[in-house]
Amino acid sequence: MTSDVLRFDDWTSPVPPVRREVVSSTEMADEGLPPVLFVPGLGHGPWAFAEHWLPHAASRGFPAHAVALRPGGDLRAYVHDVVQVAASLPRQAVLVGHGAGALIVARALGRYPARAAVLVAPVLDGWAALGAAVRANPVGTLPALFGGRLRLSRKQLFSPALPAQAANGYLRRLDRSGSRARGEVLWHPAPPRPVGSPPTLVVGSPDDRVVPRASLDRTAGRYRTAPLLFPGMGHDLMLDANWVEPIDAILDWLGKELAR
Amino acid sequence: MHDTPAIADRHDAICVIGAGASGLAAIKNLREHGFAVDCYERETSVGGAWNWRHDRSPIYAGTHLISSRPLTEFPDFPMPDTWPDYPHHSQLLSYLERYAAHFGLGEHIWFGTEVVAVTPVGDGRWDVTTRSSGGVALRVQRYAAVVVANGHNWSPKVPAYEGLASFKGRMIHSSAYKDPAQLRGRKVLVVGGGNSGCDIAVEAAQQAATVWHSTRRGYWQIPKYLFGRPADQVNDLMLKWRLPLRMRQWLVRRTVRLTAGDVRRYGLPAPDHRPFESHPLVNSQLLYYMGHGRIIPVPDVAALDGSSVELADGRRVDPDLIINATGYLPKFDFLTPEVLEMDDDGRPNLHLHAFARRHPTLSVVGLLQSDAGLFPLAHWQSVAVARWLRLWQSEPARAAALWRKETARPPRSWARRHVVPSTRHWFEVGHVEYLRVLEGLLTELEPKVATP
Fold first, then answer.
1. What separation, in Å, do the N-terminal and C-terminal C-alpha atoms of chain A show?
2. Domains of chain A: which residue ranges?
3. Which residues of A touch B (CB under 8 A)?
4. Containing H/E element for A80?
5. What pLDDT is stored for residue B452 in this prediction?
6. For B207-212, what is the mean pLDDT?
7. What is the pLDDT of residues B339-393, one digit of tens each?
8. Per-residue pLDDT tens for A210-255?
9. Alpha-carbon gap: B46 to the closest alpha carbon of chain A (Å)
C-alpha cells in the first residue's frame, strides 16, 4: 500500500537529479499573477507550448514556463521534475498538463499544493486512449505495444482546419520522449487526492481521437467538474488551428479563480 | 491590572507563535484549510533556529544537516535536488525564506512582536497578549485557537558544576559558539556527547591547540554514509522492510564493529545501551580525530577548581575554554504550566507531543526529537492540527467523540519506549512509527463527505 505520509521510495532511493530543460517567458509578467507551468505529454516537448500558448499566457501577464520530460524517465521521475520546477518558482504555480502530461500533473498535485490545475485532453485513463488510438490509427499504434515506435497521425492530433504544412511540421517534431512511461500510462494507481485542494479545470474536445468523450467526462467527474469543450479541435489543442480559444478560456477561468 | 488594554476579537482567526520552520508550516497548512492566521514572531525575519542572525539561533558557521535532504524537506515543497545530501545551514535558511515567499506567508506574520501571555478564556478561545520586541505597550487579541511553534532548541540547559564560581577560564554554552575563530589556538573542553558536542569537538580539532571531549556515556556513533548512501536512508530501508527492532540493533552493532570497531580502543567507553535507545549520533569525523590524537576523550566533569577541571576518573585537565554542548530545555513563558500539564521538571504532557489534553484548541508543533528531519513531522502535525480544528468547528459531536478516543491512547503507542532517561529524550520519537500514528489520525480527521 502506498502512503501519502510514509514515502519510503523518496526516502530510500531519491530520484536522481538531472539538468532540466525549462522554456520560460517572464518579461511581461504582472506582479499579482501566479506562474503557469506547462507540462507536455508523450512525444511532445516544451516546443509544443512555446509555439502559441506560452507566449500567449505571457502576453496576458502570466509568468509562463514549460518543462521537458527527462530523457529515459519514468512517471515517477517526471512527477519529481514537475514538482522540482514548480517549487523553484517564486510563487505558487498553476500546473497545466496536456495528454499524458495531465497524468503527470494529476500525480504532482498529490505532492505539491498548486495554485490551480488545468488538465488538457487528459490521458488519465490510458486504456480508453489506447482503444481510441487503435481505432483511429492502428498502423501507428500497434507496433508501440510491442516496443516499437508510436507514430501519431495527423487526424489524431489536429483538426482538418490546420494547414497540412503546419500539421506535418509538428508531426515531424514529435519524438520518443516518454516512451519508457508508456506502460505506466496504462497501468498506474488512481491519481492521489490533490493537496491543498486547488481549483481544477478539465479541458478537451469531443472530436479528440486520443481521449474519448466518455473518458474526458470521467476525468472531470473525478475532480467534481464538467469538461470545458472545444468542438472541432484535435487532441493537440495547443497547436491546432483554433489554439487561441482554449488558452483564452483557461486564462479567463484562472482569472476568476484567482479573484475568489 | 489597571493598564489592561481593550481586547480585540479576531473571531475565527488562529494565532501561531513563531515563524521558524514549524510555524511556517503551521501558517501554510492552516491557510490551506481556510483559516485566517496571525503569526507572531519576536525576530524581524523568518527561519527561527535556522536563521543565524537571530539571537536565539543555535547555528554556528559550520553547521550542516545531520539528516539527509529527502528526510528533511517539507513533503510538499522539496529542496532543490541539486543540493548536497547534507546541506549547509545557509541553504536551509534560504529554503525556509523561499517557502515563506512561495506560499505568500509573510503577509500573515507580525514580525518584531513577542507573545507575552496566552490565557484561556473559557469557551475554547484564547487571549493572546503581545508587545513589540523591546517595547512596553501591550496588546490583547482574542483567537479561536493557538498553535505554539516557539521551538525547543534555544533555551540552554546549563550544568551546575561544583566549584563553578572559582573557574578562571571562559565558559560558554554551545549556542554561543558561532565561529571557529573562537577556538583558534585555545585549549578547549567540549562537554556533551550529542550531535552538537561531537560536531563542535570536530571543529575544535581543526582549530584549537588541545581538545578534550567529555561524555557521560558511550554512544553508538553512526557515520554519515553507509554503503555509499546517507545513513538515514539506509536506516529507512530497514524500516521499509519492517525489520524488527532486534534485527536492526544487531545490524547496527555489526556495522559499527566492521567500520569503527571497538570504540574502547579510542579511549571511549562502550555504549551502555542498545542501538536505537538514544537519539542517533551521526558523525563520521569524531573517531577519525581521536585516532589522530586531536581529540582526547575524557569522562564526565566532576568539579571545577580555579584553572583546572577535575574529571570523574580523577584526572585533571586545564582548559581555557569550556563549551557546554549540554542541550536545551523547552520553554513556554507565555503559558501557565497547568495548561500544558507540565511536571515539576517543566516537561509538558501533550498527546502526540502536540495536542494539549485539556484544551482542544491549543497545540504545539515541532516539539519533537526525531531520528530523521523535523520538517516532515512538523508539516504533518500542522495538517493534523488544521484538520482537527476544522472538525472541531464543523462537527463538534464527532470531534468530541474522537478527542475522547484519541487522548486515551497511551504514549507508548506513539513515543519511543526504550530510551536512556534524559531530558534530551523527552520528545524522542521514531519518525516512521510516529508518522504511522499521525497518518491514522489524519484519516480519522477527514470530513465525512465523499471525496474524489
1. 37
2. 8-259
3. 3-8, 10-17, 80, 83-84, 87-92, 111-113, 193, 195-197, 222-224
4. helix A75-88
5. 41
6. 96
7. 999 999 899 999 999 999 999 999 999 999 998 999 999 999 999 999 999 999 9
8. 999 999 999 999 999 999 999 999 999 999 999 999 999 999 999 9
9. 16
Count of Cβ atoms closer than 10 Å to residue B410 Cβ? 7
Distance in Å, alpha carbon of A51 to nearest chain B alpha carbon: 28
- pLDDT at residue B4 tops 60: no
Amino acid identity of residue B96, one-letter, is L
Residues of B with Cβ-Cβ distance to A193 under 8 angstroms: 451-452
> Is the Cβ–Cβ distance between B16 and B378 less than 8 Å?
no
Whether A224 and B240 lie within 8 Å, measured CB to CB: no
Q: How many residues does chain A have?
A: 260
Exposed, middle or buried: residue B443 (CB in 10 Å: 0-12, 13-18, 19+)?
Answer: exposed
Please check whether residue B281 is in contact with residue B424, taking contact to mean a CB–CB distance below 8 angstroms. Answer: no
Contact B77 A112 (CB under 8 A): yes
DSSP for A100-133, written as a single string: HHHHHHHHHTTTS--SEEEEES---SHHHHHHHH
Q: Which of B346, B396, B364, B335 is nearest to B151 (CA)?
A: B364
Residue A82's H or E segment, with its range, is helix A75-88
Determine which of A6, A76, A223 to mutate to test the interface with B (most B C-beta atoms within 10 Å). Answer: A6
Adjacent-strand bridge partners of A187? none
CB environment A218-230: b (16+ within 10 A), e (fewer): bbbebbeeebbbb
Contact A202, A188 (CB under 8 A): no
Minimal-distance CA residue of chain B relative to A191: B452
C-alpha cell at B8: 480585540
Asked if A84's CB is within 8 angstroms of B76's CB, the reply is no
In CATH terms, is domain B164-324 a member of 3.50.50.60? yes
Only one residue has cell 530510551, namely B419
| Residue B297: alpha-carbon gap to chain centroid | 26
Helix axes B231-240, B245-259, angle to 10 degrees: 150
- Cβ-defined contact of A223 to B432 (cutoff 8 Å): no
CATH of domain A8-259: 3.40.50.1820
Exposed/middle/buried for A259, CB within 10 Å: 0-12, 13-18, 19+? exposed
Write the ipTM.
Answer: 0.94
* Residues B380 and A5: beta-carbon distance below 8 Å: yes
pLDDT beyond 80 at B416: no
Q: How far apart are CA B256 and CA B263, in angstroms?
A: 9
Q: CA B282, CA B262: separation in Å to the nearest integer?
A: 17
* DSSP tag of B444: H
Helices B375-394/B396-407 angle, 10° precision: 140
Task: Give residue-wise pLDDT tens across range A2-59.
Answer: 678 999 999 999 999 999 999 999 988 888 999 999 999 988 999 999 999 999 999 9
- The CATH classification of domain B7-155+328-444, taken from the options 3.50.50.60, 3.90.550.10, 3.40.50.970, 2.30.30.60: 3.50.50.60
Give Cα separations from A229 to A54, A170, A222, B72 (angstroms): 21, 23, 17, 43
- Average model confidence (pLDDT) across chain B: 93
Q: Where in chain B is the domain with CATH 3.50.50.60?
A: 7-155+328-444, 164-324
Structure confidence at residue B292 (pLDDT): 95
Instruction: Show residues of chain B in contact with A1, CB under 8 Å.
Output: none
Q: Pick from B32, B82, B102: which is nearest to A196 by CB? A: B32
Give A85 to chain B, closest Cα distance, Å. Answer: 9
